[in-house]
Amino acid sequence: MNILKNNNKDQLDIMRKVGKKTNMSQRELATELGFSLGKLNYCLKELRKKGFIKIKNFRNSSSKSDYMYALTPAGLITKKRLIVAFMKLKMKEYDELKLEIDN
Asked: Containing domain of residue 42, as a range?
């Protein structure tokens, strides 16, 4: 079974960004990832439903864009699994390309 199917690459990218910097606006996060706001919003909701991230709004803030994103323990485990699967996929692609070049 391929763990990187069905937008998991996008979710991995989001989890990697959230793991590095938790207090970004959705607009900043979308820009850094090259996503539309709609796509990012959808992915964030899916990650939250799966229990991989927590999203907190700073209610005392004057800006509606002030959110904090945090990986949950399940999110950290999933992020690790996705990274390993991604690396295995890239290593396989590398080996196939190397074989093709050698032939």
From this structure: 8-102
